[in-house]
Amino acid sequence: MTQRLLARRTFESAAEAVLNDVVALHGAEYGDLQLVVGDELVIVAQRGLSDAFLRAFRRVRKTDGCACGRAWRTGTTVVVADVTKDVDYAGNRGDAAAAGYRAVQSTPIVTRDGTMLGLISTLFVNAHEPTPIEMETLARYSRVAADHLAALLGRDTLARKAMQMSDALYAAV
Which CATH number is 59's domain given? Predict the structure, then answer.
């Protein structure tokens, strides 16, 4: 995964590689990559998610009870093995049912110097918890991904790049 990622020479292609690799690693049905823009996370890439999901989670704040909001707030991975049983997910259960997922994990993408670029999330049709080896692999990969993505930003700011990618994604939604 790391070799494939490091061969990517544009921010957009590297972001797509991260998403594809993590969805494949987890054997997930769905996935998304969100980047930090001010006090919000914005979706910049996705796999398999419905338009309804993309509208519901277009902008996420740290105070939101969804897995990505909680992971952003705590700076740690959040695994919700069953959204129907997770108290903090109550406000998003309808969105989860409409989108067709029952489990989700969200992992921060943080550079070596501690800058959080965003989050990578995988979503599963059934109640599910990724294995410890999958999560350890993701933790290592996300650190490499963060540094590579940061290096590819060049003159762009993260916010500008995120909004360009988000606008392109949402033009079709």
Answer: 3.30.450.40
